[in-house]
Amino acid sequence: MIPFVFPLGIFVAVILVWFFFRSGGYKRHPLDAPPGADWTLTSERFRDPQSVEMLEVWYCPRTGERAYVRARVGGSS
Description:
- The chain is an alpha+beta fold.
- The chain has one domain (2-70).
- It is 26% helix and 25% strand.
- The chain has one helix and three strands; from the N terminus they run H-E-E-E.
- A three-stranded antiparallel sheet has the order 1-2-3, with no helix packed on it.
- A hairpin with a 6-residue loop joins strand 1 and strand 2 (54-59).
- The termini are far apart.
- The model has no long low-confidence stretch (mean pLDDT 83).
């Protein structure tokens, strides 16, 4: 029984990891505005390959978290 349960458990774990972390499954959606006053705009900008939108990267020094915000047409504040 044990020789059958162990490989089955590994198979189920792999399926669960695939389900939650597959392409698009664990991706944050870009924001329309900066997250808050304690966030800093970085010099990073890139075009999202899936949505083809230009995104800016914002950084929170307190937590180390990064947020992706849709770039404004007229530039950033």
